[in-house]
């Protein structure tokens, strides 16, 4: 029952998401389940007995409404109708119609469909899929019996990989089949994640293989890869690189991700990388939109000479097949979906009719109709008919239009849709043909439509296998992928600039599972001058006689060709290595084949051969003589031993220390630090190496284990009634000896035992403490791990030993190098040392550290390595000199050394010789505490060293135990030889050798009773117990594991049948079980436990070498580094205590490049590590406000960079203001002009009754003066910071004022002419058209035209304030943009028309009698006016910013003053200065004189 509930839980969750159970009714009413949300989707539906769903991209974009959540959120609006996408949907409808008409397929069953548009939007596509899966019923009763088929039995789609992933993640939980026709992501082949996903298009995996086949065919080993930034592209990039590497067919010169949206800077960077690369082949897995944006940049930079390879996503894209792109994309080779023919499809498409129904059942057809015929069905949108739009009748003729919808010449996605529908139909048909009682389901039952479960159809869909009319077989493999096949397309560039896409081959999977490429190369068009395929390799092939040597830091395809050395040859092109010739052969001069060596041998014909032959025959005779003697005396008694026993193959004579016990623990220690190998002649039994150089500290390590065992034996709570013993061996710092000791402990040292004896009891040792060396531990654990013999090392730190699969029985109480490396990196970070050198020993310890250090340092971003050098073993002064030379030349002041004592001694000898000072040394735990380096000769160089040291601990009672150790002079030497060797080394004596009891070389004889307190020895120094503390913890870990094992309660054990382990029948893997779970605390307070890799809880002390005044070194702890709760390294340092070996007494500075201050950004030095860079100042307008900024950032729009480029400051603003001199002058001038107008107006008003005022139409004069005053005042609107209202008013007021002014002048001119004509006989009738009313009306009418122009301009395209930064980057020029050039031109043009008209009329009247001299004044004034405004146009256009406003103000003032002075100056002169001429007689007198 519980399992059933678990299986139904996902379905329950989905139902709760989409349905809302309503319990608000009374109990008498059954609770119902209502649809929580209905998705309003574009769709097309047809009813049937069985419904198939479909998801298609009929619109290629959508618009998301703004979500305010103050009302129910609106759904997205689909935009951009896609006729090919609609054709895809109709192909599915056609396939279903065809199946319904087929009497042999699904007889008596009618298929229906529900097809939805995903609008190329994940949210919509996912909503449509859920609607298909759950149905759209508004309400149903939970109590009703849930029977019958699901809403849809299968879904054809989605076309996008990302959409299919999202949909299948959910739909797959219910095993509803999804058959995609265009989703190619290889990730969808994951059957565990997508159990119900199928597809009729090959996956990207096959597409990648197809691409690789093309590369292989043309020998293109060096290519670039461009992918789109989505699931499709990113999965392809990962797969392509992996497959290319594994196949060895080539390398990628670059891999770039094409961005979505507008990102010209990124595309520019990508195309520049393509130009710089030597790769001539570019492979692109991307979509049409990506390619369009990319090719725009390719055209801009004119990047030709590339061979493009197209993925199926754009290989047939018509939008890219344009004449403009052919110089670049001509000759493209592409992978295309298999083309197929679907008979009858075009006729079906032609029969498409929208019908007259206005419901939402078939919205797709109606939308297609409206898009194709540019009409709307009733009721149309608002204003559609008013705008001239047409109504759709539904009777329009499809054949009369040109539409992609009817193009069935290149059916590729449609062919996959067709196969997908038929696959579902065949699966359904196979299911319905099941015979009752012989079905595949439980109880041999069959599925039925009435009780159908979606997973039942899955069973048949996986096994579907049929052939379609076009001849292609359709079936699915175990991953739901169809049989893969692709067409190879080539873009032929035609002479007229057009494009023809040719099918030049096919790639498909063969019966053996490989890809088979068939190409017709004669048909391929190559877009190169030689019409041949290009050559794209990083390095040319290496001829026989040479080998490839990979270029450092470059892909494997980039190599140099190095000639083979003597005696070696290569007889193939591109040989990876040269091979030695056979024994009797030598290399030819060209090193491409072997030739016979000249022969030389010892023959019977030379004197030496004759002598040796004689000696050989003599020996044979002697052997025959001895054989005769033995035969003659064959009756001599001889016992032959023959028994069924097993004999120890070899006994190892090792230095050791032993103690018997119920359980034996083994130990491996370095008690001697060197060994001498005897010469191996093999004429006698080989001798073992002899150990040399007694190491007192190593002996103390061994005795610490002996002490721990003694302490455990005395502890009544730990292992009661069990006595521990030990077998401790000396590895002599030699692998063969240490390995021999490990094997000796594992197999025991019994000389012989009978095979018939029962192999029972405790193993020789149940665990080994050691080995201290990583390399030795690796070798021993490789073997002992096979038998699960626990090894607990106290000093082997190689991180490789954490590999649990390779070393399943290895444990350690010292942190691994992985933690030590991270601890070192923490120290580097703490002091800001980003530039350091690394020296490592040439063994597993050093080489693993080197690899790990570089990787972790790069990941952490803590710095870079200036150099990495390997310290050799043995005496190699030349190599050490080279390494020190590297250190000297480097700018790195910090040197990190992971090595052993012998390496450091040889290194320091060379450092002293070259006097290399000023370095900060960082020591690994292997030499941090070595007293051999703490000598006066090295102090000036190694003083101030910081090092990582094993955790110090205290072991109470250890010193007393060491003092009690005494050798037994009567004991067998081999049993406890370590104690005897220590005694001889310490007291410089010798124990007597048995049996003679003599002492060699007459030296002092050891008695075994010497007093240890009387000598100075490192053995008794227990103040710095570090490796000893780890040994102590290792012994106790094994003891606690044994104790836990023996504390097991019978019947409640962890092993098979709840059994417990016992000492009598102990298997080593049983102890492993407890050792992995051990957890205890030492008396010193440290917790001991092991993680899943066998590593103990890591902690290190940080040590500092203090240089004392007397030249000695004192090592003290200055901090610690341990793993925090978050599993990060936590460094605690007491910097006050640190001694720095520099004059400044401060930590040194070790960087490749100094930090870039704010205002600059880092630019990496070419060919150097990331830490080496230049500091480049930010360009104008860009800033960086942080140290070591990777890039500079643009300032906001209204800001500019400070002089230091470290922050943004507001830009300076510029406009014509009242505070600046120019603005003040113009303002004063404007006010002066307005004042003059007021004065003149006052004069005219005061003298309004005089003849000269009355003769010049006083009303128009007053109106003209008012308009001039407005002209002067409107110039003030051009001064000051532009606002919206000032921008709108300045030109409007200016235009209206000047039109009013010029209109008055025009009317006055016309009146003058009319009066003159009236003065002639018969001309009086003309005056009736120029009365006062007509004059006012004319001025008003002319002014209203300008008002209308200004109103239309402001309403349609209003002038507005604008912040212009084009003149000066660091300055904002505030100006008014006119909004509409047409409006501005109309305003000025209208003024110009009136002005020119006034000028022409006045000019025609210039020769009138003097009493009509008003015409002359008007002519002069309009001449000034026109001259000013003609000069204004070029000056205005060429004046930037505020100077344009100043020019316009100047023009306004100049023209206004011109009119004022020209028209009213002479009159004011007469009125004020010549009043005698201001009489009617004087005015009329002129005419009489004339």
* Mean pLDDT across all amino acids: 81
Taking the sheet with the most strands, its summary is: 8 strands, mixed
- Give the strand tally: 58
The geometry reads as: extended
Q: Residue share in helices? A: 25-40%
Strand content: 15-25%
Q: Give the radius of gyration.
A: 51 Å
The end-to-end span amounts to 130 Å
Structural class comes to: alpha/beta
How many H/I helical runs? Answer: 35
- What are the low-pLDDT stretches, counting only 5+ consecutive residues below 50? 1-32, 139-146, 637-645, 754-758, 1486-1490
Strand order of the largest sheet: 13-12-14-15-16-21-22-23
Q: Topology, pairings included?
A:
Elements (H helix, E strand, L loop, with lengths): L1 H17 E4 L9 E4 L7 E4 L3 E7 L2 E5 L13 E5 L1 H19 L9 E7 L4 H13 L4 E2 L14 E2 L4 H11 L6 E3 L16 E3 L4 H15 L3 E7 L2 H17 L3 E8 L5 H13 L4 E5 L2 H14 L5 E4 L15 H4 L3 E5 L7 H6 L12 H11 L1 E2 L13 E2 L21 H20 L21 H9 L2 E3 L5 E3 L9 E9 L5 E11 L5 E5 L26 E5 L8 E5 L4 E2 L9 E2 L4 E3 L6 E3 L10 H26 L12 E3 L8 E4 L3 E7 L2 E5 L13 E5 L1 H19 L9 E7 L4 H13 L4 E3 L12 E3 L4 H11 L6 E3 L16 E3 L4 H15 L3 E7 L2 H17 L3 E8 L5 H13 L4 E5 L2 H14 L5 E4 L15 H4 L3 E5 L7 H6 L13 H11 L39 H20 L21 H9 L2 E3 L5 E3 L9 E9 L5 E11 L5 E5 L26 E5 L8 E5 L4 E2 L9 E2 L4 E3 ...
Parallel strand pairs: 4-7, 4-9, 9-10, 10-11, 12-13, 12-14, 14-15, 15-16, 17-18, 32-35, 32-37, 37-38, 38-39, 40-41, 40-42, 42-43, 43-44, 56-58
Antiparallel strand pairs: 1-2, 2-8, 3-7, 5-6, 16-21, 19-20, 21-22, 22-23, 24-25, 26-27, 28-29, 30-36, 31-35, 33-34, 44-47, 45-46, 47-48, 48-49, 50-51, 52-53, 54-55, 57-58
Helix pairs in contact: 2-12, 3-4, 5-6, 7-8, 12-13, 15-25, 16-17, 18-19, 20-21, 25-26, 27-29, 27-34, 29-30, 29-34, 30-31, 30-32, 31-32, 32-33, 33-34
């Amino acid at each position: 029952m519980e399992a059933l509930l678990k299986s139904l839980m996902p379905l329950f969750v989905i139902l709760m998401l989409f349905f809302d159970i309503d319990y608000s009714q009374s109990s008498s009413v059954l609770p119902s389940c209502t649809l929580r949300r209905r998705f309003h989707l574009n769709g097309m539906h047809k009813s049937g007995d069985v419904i198939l769903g479909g998801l298609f991209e009929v619109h290629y974009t959508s618009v998301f409404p703004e979500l305010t959540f103050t009302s129910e959120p609106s759904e997205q609006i689909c935009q951009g109708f896609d006729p090919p996408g609609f054709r895809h949907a109709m192909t599915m409808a056609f396939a279903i119609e065809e199946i319904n008409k087929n009497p042999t397929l699904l007889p008596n069953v009618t298929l229906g469909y529900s097809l939805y548009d995903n609008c190329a939007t994940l949210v919509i596509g996912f909503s449509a899929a859920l609607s298909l899966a759950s149905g759209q019923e508004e309400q149903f009763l939970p109590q009703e019996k849930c029977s019958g088929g699901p809403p849809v039995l299968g879904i054809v789609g989605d076309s996008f990989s990302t959409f299919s992933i999202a949909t299948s993640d959910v739909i797959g939980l219910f095993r509803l089949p999804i058959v995609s026709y265009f989703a190619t992501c290889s990730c969808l082949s994951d059957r565990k994640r997508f159990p119900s996903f199928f597809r009729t298009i090959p996956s990207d995996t096959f597409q990648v293989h197809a691409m690789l086949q093309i590369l292989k065919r043309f020998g293109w080993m060096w290519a670039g890869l461009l992918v789109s930034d989505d699931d499709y592209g990113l999965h392809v990039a990962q797969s392509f690189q992996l497959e290319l590497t594994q196949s060895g067919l080539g390398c990628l010169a670059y891999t770039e991700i094409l961005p979505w949206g507008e990102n010209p800077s990124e595309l520019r960077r990508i195309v520049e990388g393509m130009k710089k690369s030597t790769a001539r082949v570019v492979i692109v897995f991307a979509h049409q939109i990506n390619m369009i944006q990319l090719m725009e940049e390719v055209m801009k930079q004119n990047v030709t000479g590339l061979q493009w390879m197209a993925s199926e996503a754009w290989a047939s894209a018509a939008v890219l097949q344009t004449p403009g792109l052919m110089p670049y994309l001509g000759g493209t080779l592409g992978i295309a979906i298999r083309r197929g023919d679907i008979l009858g499809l075009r006729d079906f498409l032609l029969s498409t009719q929208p019908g007259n129904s206005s419901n939402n059942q078939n919205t797709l057809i109606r939308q297609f109709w409206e898009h194709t015929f540019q009409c709307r069905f009733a009721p149309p949108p608002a204003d559609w008919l008013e705008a001239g739009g047409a109504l759709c009748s539904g009777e329009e003729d499809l054949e009369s239009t040109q539409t992609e919808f009817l193009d069935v010449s290149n059916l590729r996605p449609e062919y996959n849709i067709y196969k997908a529908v038929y696959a579902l139909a065949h699966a359904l048909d196979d299911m319905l043909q099941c015979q009752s009682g012989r079905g595949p389901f439980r109880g041999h039952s069959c599925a039925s439509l009435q009780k159908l479960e979606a997973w039942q159809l899955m069973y048949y869909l996986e096994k579907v296998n049929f052939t379609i009319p076009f001849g292609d077989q359709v079936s699915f493999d175990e991953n739901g992928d169809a049989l893969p096949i692709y067409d190879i397309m080539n873009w032929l560039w035609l002479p007229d600039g057009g494009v023809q896409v040719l099918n030049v081959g096919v790639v498909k999977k063969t019966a053996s599972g490989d890809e088979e490429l068939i190409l017709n190369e004669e048909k391929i068009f190559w877009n190169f001058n030689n019409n041949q395929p290009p050559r794209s390799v990083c390095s040319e092939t290496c001829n026989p006689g040479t080998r490839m040597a990979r270029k450092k830091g470059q892909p494997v395809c980039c190599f140099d060709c190095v000639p083979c050395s003597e005696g070696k040859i290569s007889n193939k092109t591109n040989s990876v290595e040269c091979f030695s010739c056979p024994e009797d052969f030598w290399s030819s001069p060209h090193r491409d084949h072997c030739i016979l060596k000249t022969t030389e041998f010892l023959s019977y014909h030379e004197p030496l051969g004759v002598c040796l032959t004689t000696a050989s025959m003599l020996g044979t005779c002697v052997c025959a003589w001895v054989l005769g003697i033995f035969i003659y005396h064959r009756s001599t008694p001889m016992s032959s031993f023959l028994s069924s026993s097993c004999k120890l193959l070899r006994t190892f004579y090792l230095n050791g220390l032993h103690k018997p016990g119920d359980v034996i623990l083994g130990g491996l220690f370095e008690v001697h630090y060197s060994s001498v190998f005897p010469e191996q002649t093999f004429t006698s039994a080989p001798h073992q190496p002899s150990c040399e150089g007694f190491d007192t500290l190593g002996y103390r390590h061994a005795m610490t284990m002996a002490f721990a065992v003694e302490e455990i034996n005395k502890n009544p709570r730990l292992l009661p009634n069990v006595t521990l013993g030990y077998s401790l061996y000396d590895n002599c710092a030699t692998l063969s000896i240490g390995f021999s000791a490990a094997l000796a402990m594992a197999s025991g040292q019994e000389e012989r035992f009978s095979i018939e004896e029962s192999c029972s009891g405790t193993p020789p040792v149940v665990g080994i403490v050691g080995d201290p060396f990583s390399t030795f531990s690796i070798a021993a654990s490789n073997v002992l791990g096979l038998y699960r013999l626990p090894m607990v090392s106290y000093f082997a730190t190689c991180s490789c030993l954490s590999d649990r699969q390779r070393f399943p029985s290895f444990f350690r109480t010292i942190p691994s190098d992985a933690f030590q490396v991270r601890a070192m990196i923490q120290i580097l970070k703490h002091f800001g040392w980003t530039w350091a050198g690394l020296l490592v020993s040439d063994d597993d310890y050093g080489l693993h550290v080197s690899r790990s250090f570089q990787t972790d340092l790069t990941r952490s971003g803590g710095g870079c390595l200036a150099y990495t050098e390997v310290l050799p073993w043995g005496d190699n002064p030349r190599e050490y000199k080279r390494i020190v030379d590297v250190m000297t030349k480097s700018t790195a002041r910090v040197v990190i050394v992971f090595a052993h004592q012998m390496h450091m001694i040889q290194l320091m000898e060379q450092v002293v010789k070259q006097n290399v000072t000023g370095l900060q040394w960082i020591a690994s735990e292997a030499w941090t505490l070595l007293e051999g380096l703490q000598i006066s000769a090295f102090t000036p160089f190694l003083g101030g060293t910081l090092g990582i040291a094993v955790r110090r601990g205290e072991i109470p009672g250890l010193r007393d135990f060491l003092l009690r150790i005494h050798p037994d002079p009567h004991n067998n030497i081999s049993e406890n030889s370590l104690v005897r060797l220590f005694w001889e080394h310490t007291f410089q004596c010798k124990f007597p050798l048995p049996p003679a009891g003599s002492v060699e070389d007459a030296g002092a004889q050891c008695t075994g009773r010497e007093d240890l307190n009387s000598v100075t020895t490192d053995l008794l120094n227990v103040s710095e117990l570090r490796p000893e503390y780890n040994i102590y913890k290792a012994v106790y870990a094994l003891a606690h594991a044994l104790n836990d094992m023996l504390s097991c309660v019978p019947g409640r054990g962890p092993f098979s049948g709840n059994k417990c382990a016992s000492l009598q029948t102990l298997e080593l893997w049983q102890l492993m079980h407890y050792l992995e779970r051990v957890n205890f605390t030492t008396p010193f307070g440290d917790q001991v436990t092991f993680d899943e890799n066998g590593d103990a809880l890591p902690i290190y002390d940080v040590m500092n070498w203090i240089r004392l005044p007397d030249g000695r070194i004192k090592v003290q702890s200055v901090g610690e580094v341990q793993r925090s709760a978050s599993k990060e390294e936590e460094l605690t340092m007491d910097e006050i205590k640190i001694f720095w070996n520099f004059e400044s007494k401060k930590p040194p500075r070790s960087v490749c490049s100094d930090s870039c201050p704010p205002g600059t950004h880092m630019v990496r030095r070419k060919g150097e590590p990331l830490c080496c860079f230049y500091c480049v100042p930010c360009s104008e307008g860009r800033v960086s406000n942080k140290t070591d900024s990777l890039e500079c950032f643009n300032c906001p729009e209204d800001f500019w960079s400070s002089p230091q480029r470290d922050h943004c400051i507001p830009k300076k603003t510029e406009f014509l203001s009242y505070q600046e001199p120019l603005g003040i002058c113009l303002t004063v001038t404007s006010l002066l002009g307005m004042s003059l107008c007021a004065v003149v107006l006052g004069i005219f008003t005061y003298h309004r009754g005089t003849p000269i005022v009355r003769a010049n139409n006083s009303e128009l004069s007053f109106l003209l003066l008012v308009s001039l005053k407005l002209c002067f005042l409107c110039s003030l609107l051009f001064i000051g910071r532009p606002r919206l209202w000032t921008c709108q008013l300045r030109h409007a007021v200016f235009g209206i004022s000047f039109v009013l002014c010029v209109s008055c002048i025009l009317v006055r001119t016309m009146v003058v002419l009319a009066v003159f004509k009236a003065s002639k006989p018969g001309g009086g009738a003309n005056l009736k058209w120029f009365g006062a009313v007509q004059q006012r009306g004319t001025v008003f009418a002319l002014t209203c035209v300008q008002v209308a122009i200004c109103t239309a301009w402001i309403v349609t395209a209003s002038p507005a304030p604008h912040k212009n930064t084009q003149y000066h980057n660091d300055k904002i020029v505030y100006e008014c943009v006119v909004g509409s050039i047409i409006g501005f031109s109309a305003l000025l043009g209208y003024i110009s028309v009136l002005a020119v008209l006034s000028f022409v009329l006045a000019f025609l009247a210039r020769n009138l009698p003097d009493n009509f001299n008003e015409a002359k004044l008007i002519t002069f004034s309009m001449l000034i006016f026109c001259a000013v405004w003609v000069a204004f146009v070029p000056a205005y256009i060429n004046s930037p910013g505020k100077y344009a406003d100043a020019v316009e103000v100047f023009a306004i003032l100049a023209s206004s003053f011109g009119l004022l002075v020209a028209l009213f100056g002479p009159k004011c002169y007469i009125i004020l200065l010549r009043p005698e001429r201001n009489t009617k007689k004087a005015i009329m007198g002129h005419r009489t004189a004339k």
